[in-house]
Amino acid sequence: MKRTITLPLVGEARRDGADSVAYRTVTPVPIDVVSGLVRESWCSRIAVTDASSDGQWPAEFRAMCVFESQPFVLTGLIGRRSN
Predict the structure, then answer these.
(1) Hey, how many other C-beta atoms are within 10 angstroms of the C-beta on 78?
(2) How does pLDDT run along the chain (83 residues), one tens digit per residue?
(3) Could you tell me where the beta strands, DSSP code E, fall in 1-83?
């Protein structure tokens, strides 16, 4: 697996560890983009966790993906809506 990949909608993602089959987005992904991932053919099974009310844990998403014939898990922080 490549160390970094560029994915449609979410941009650059880096591998989560040397032996991992998971990638993490480099920058927070806007909430409207995360909700649009469900319509992408390369992405499925999206789970979203809410941020904690005290701000200790940010909102995150996790998705099962297959891009360029490579299956992996994509995780990332959820940011504000895009303009």
Answers:
(1) 20
(2) 789 999 999 999 999 877 778 999 999 999 999 999 989 999 989 999 998 888 788 899 999 999 989 999 999 999 877 66
(3) 4-7, 11-15, 22-25, 29-30, 43-49, 60-67, 70-79
Question: 8 phi and psi, to 5 degrees?
Answer: -60, 145
Written as six digits, the tokens of 55 are: 């701000």
Distance CA 53, CA 76 (A): 19
Give yes or no for a contact between 7 and 63, defined as CB atoms under 8 angstroms apart. no
Closest to 47 (Cα-Cα) out of 37, 55, 57: 37
* pTM for this prediction: 0.85
